Amino acid sequence: MVVSSSKERAPTLRRALATVGSTVGLTLTFSDIELSERKESEPQSLASAAGGAPADPGMGAYRARLYLVGPDSPGLVHRVALLLASHALNITSMDTRVYAGNEEELVDVAGESGARSPSMRSASDVFDMSAVVASSAVPDVPRIEEAMAALQKELGVSIELEWIVAASDLKNSAAEA
């Protein structure tokens, strides 16, 4: 999530968010994003290239759509979010769904069986995630694609990253930098 504040108010905001996060079991990671004007050599966002409004620099001028589909298991969103964060990509919007598999295969995470609850999983449950990710820095597309391929193989899921700005434009910008 991108949250903006003045530099003076940032420490107070961080403390408040960390306090709230800890009460609900969230671990929060903070990083500063400096807003700057896009260089002429950098690719435009899809909207600005089409004559629309320029990308909001606070949300990142470089955007991609991420799609993940595969067997449901604990920690999928966490693992993907860690990978994205390690490449300076922020999730700006996300939708997840679990499509129920075979009810006869249900096993409670605690090992009990019975009526379906949020903690119950079936080996045939399918997890579906779609997200928009963004970065204010030029993404290193080859490294991101390599990391996504490794995570995809490790988790046994399908992950697609569809750049809103052509990946070839990003690769060219990175080479020029």
3D structure, described in words:
This protein is an alpha+beta fold and about 180 residues long. It has 2 domains: about 1-30, no CATH class; about 60-175, Alpha-Beta Plaits (2-Layer Sandwich). It contains 5 helices and 6 strands. A 4-stranded antiparallel beta sheet has the order 2-5-1-6, covered by helices on one side. Strands 3-4 form a two-stranded antiparallel ribbon. α3 packs antiparallel against α4. The radius of gyration is 19 Å and the shape is flat. It starts with 9 loop residues before the first helix and ends with a helix. Mean pLDDT is about 75; it is low at about 35-60 and about 105-115.
Helix-strand layout with pairing:
Elements: H1 10-23, H2 46-49, E1 62-71, H3 76-86, E2 90-99, E3 107-108, E4 120-121, E5 126-135, H4 141-155, E6 158-163, H5 167-176
Antiparallel strand pairs: 1-5, 1-6, 2-5, 3-4
Helix pairs in contact: 3-4
List keywords for this structure.
177 residues, alpha+beta, Alpha-Beta Plaits, 2 domains, two-stranded antiparallel ribbon, 6 strands, 31% helix
What's this model, at a glance?
This protein has 177 residues and is of the alpha+beta class. The chain has helices at 10-23, 46-49, 76-86, 141-155, 167-176, and strands spanning 62-71, 90-99, 107-108, 120-121, 126-135, 158-163.
